[in-house]
Amino acid sequence: MGCCSSCLTETYPEKQQQQQPGGALSASHLTPGVGVGGAALEGGDGVLAFAEFSLADLKAATNDFSSDNIVSERGEKAGNFVYRGRLQNRRWIAVKKFGKMAWPDPKQFAEEAWGVGKLRHKRLANLIGYCCDGDERLLVAEFMPNDTLTKHLFHWESQTIEWSMRLRVAYCIAEALDYCNSQGRRLYHDLNAYRVLFDEDGNPRLSCFGLMKNSRDGKSYSTNLAYTPPEYLRNGRVTPESVIFSFGTVLLDLLSGKHIPPSHALDMIRGKNILLLMDSHLEGKFSTEEATALVDLASRCLQYDPRERPDTVSLVATLAPLQTRSEVPSQVMLGITKQEEAPLGPQRPLSPMGDACSRRDLTAIHQILVTTHYKDDEGTNELSFQEWTQQMRDMLDARKRGDFAFRDKDFKTAIDCYSQFVDVGTMISPTVYARRSLCHLMCDQPDAALRDAMQAQCVYPDWPTAFYMQAVALAKLNMPSDAADMLNEAAALEEKKQKGGGRGS
User: Fold this and answer.
1) Residues whose CB falls within 8 Å of the CB of residue 149, separated by 6 or more in sequence, listed in order
2) Which residue of 47, 180, 285, 384 is most buried, as measured by CB atoms within 10 A?
């Protein structure tokens, strides 16, 4: 796992008001209690805060935008692709890469991205960042690993989506649209089954990419003209009522399990041929009363006159009573198996430090760091006689006070003293970062602990202790699979150093 300065200089929640669209933050903006590796952790739900990414970060995350990482090729004519990527903090992301000069004005693109980036909701695949670099325009969102509604509805292999899950999809997307409306984001461009994604638990999410246009002046719809709102065909404009029409086409998809042009569907509905409209794979497995309610809602959404269509509040109110199996997990309804996280465990023999980290025994880790003292810092700083200024003495005094507090388990004081040492910046000590990382863990601040452990790695790239501390922090952040990977990486480095006689433990 590599580390670079750019992965530690992203935008954090408490700094967002200072950051201007299109601007970048310096290392001086780093504050305790934030995440690392490409974006900040926000709140207890684990959603990443909005950030500006560097092109280098996104190239690294997507293996230089490898074709193997393309997860969506919709909008190919416009050159817009979506890639799967992984940040240095092991979080998966989706990166939408626009065609050359899709947004000529970087400021306009940044402002639009920041507007969408303010949204945070459990029904959205949230936007967590953007990148403007030369002609490049990219959006970064949470990655949804269980494909799109299109895949599960039209291209399924083992089983189609059951009726209750289709009702849940409709309800969740209505909730997402209603939330966006409440936040002043009433326009959603090209709402269709491709825009509905499923997260790791199988829950439906609405892609945040549709909240931005495909380009500054580009078309807002890329689907077949038969599915676009009639008013868009007349004037090329998207309105909130247009979004409702598109939602109606998604309801038709859920009802029929196939693409039916709205005009054809409305003819079937007026002719009372509801059963002909229904997906044949659902025969005998759905409630006629619920289906009638959904057909009626679709009919209202697809009205030619935009004024006759319901608003998002009405969508939610109509669909809420149809959720009769809310206790059943989405992954069960969707027929997927949630990938089990690997336990935090070693694949090779561990040293006392490795063993303590695998058990998350913070007391044992503390004792080892106290005993090790600063022997692992040898060679990380070469100081000349001229550098022994009063400032240097003050800095070393701050470290000494931090060491006393660390030894006495006064972890809050230790954090303050070590922070004084770090802020001066004359001497860089991986051990101080490791010690402060443990202090943050003791104070139940795992995101800040991870940040310090990664800083220790930046100073001393092959230091096993830095990786061990990251493993503990990742485990505390409920990322056991990533923690296990990091633990094994640390153990491998330790084994390599023991064989090669390198410095450090």
Assistant:
1) 169, 193, 194, 196, 197, 198, 204, 250, 253
2) 180
